[in-house]
Design a protein that fits this description.
Region (Disordered): 1-21
Order of helices and strands: H
Distance between the termini: 161 Å
Helix content: over 70%
Number of strands: 0
Biased composition (Basic and acidic residues): 8-21
Length: 104
């Protein structure tokens, strides 16, 4: 009677990465590449944010300078208004003083 041969069972592989050094090296390289890509991306994000912050700061400085200039102009306008009122008062007083001197 012939012997019945057993068919091999398909069991999951239990090989460790050390059994396949090339695969382990590729996995390590992929992990390092991902780390470098993440670091590069973070560096780029950081540089972009810094550049945008500088542009924003420049825009704010210009806006503040314009606001201060507008304040100075408003102060000068107020001073001119006060001087004009004083001049009108003096002119009115002079006219009042001159009225009795004018012949009827």
């Amino acid at each position: 009677m012939p012997k019945i041969s057993k068919t091999p069972r398909n069991e999951p592989s239990r090989d460790s990465p050390e059994d396949f050094p090339e695969l382990a090296r590729e996995a390590s390289l992929a992990a390092n590449t991902t780390e470098l890509a993440n670091e590069t991306l973070l560096q780029h994000i950081s540089e972009t944010i810094a550049a945008e912050a500088r542009r924003s700061q420049t825009a704010m400085d210009q806006s503040i300078a314009k606001l201060e200039l507008s304040h100075d102009v408003a102060t000068l306008c107020d001073a001119i208004g006060v001087r004009q009122a004083e001049a009108e008062s003096r002119i009115s007083a002079l006219e009042d003083d001159m009225a009795p001197l004018q012949p009827d």
